[in-house]
Amino acid sequence: MRLRLSWLQDGTGAAIFINPMCGSGTLAIEAALAGTNRASGILRDYFAFMHLKGFNESLWKDLRAQAKKEAKKTLDCRIIATDIRRDAVEQQGGMLLLPGLST
User: Choosing a second label site near 100 at 20 to 30 A (CA), which of 38, 47, 68, 78?
Assistant: First the structure.
């Protein structure tokens, strides 16, 4: 289950997410995923539950395809992520450059 993120409105009414203590950027990445309606974990191909008895691979493929179709290509909000520790932000190594999004 995705953490419910709090979005503010800027002066124009556009959504904005601010994380002043972002560390390596986990919440900023989740905000970008939420802002583009991307399902958490959609970039992963393997989950342990795939080996459980009763796992329906056909249903799983259909659900993933639907989730990918519903994802937006552009982010129509602002995400501001900062941290006092510059090295923490630098260690995220470009993870904020998600496929289909730009900074």
Answer: 47
pTM over 0.85: no
Please provide the DSSP assignment of 9-64 as one string. E-TTS-EEEEETT-TTTHHHHHHHHHHTTPPTTTT----GGGGSTT--HHHHHHHH
Q: Is 100 helix (H, G, I), strand (E, B) or coil?
A: coil
Q: By three-state DSSP, how is residue 88 classified?
A: helix
Asked if residues 28 and 98 have their Cβ atoms less than 8 Å apart, the reply is no
Contact indicator for 68, 35 with CB cutoff of 8 Å: no
For the chain, how many residues are written? 103
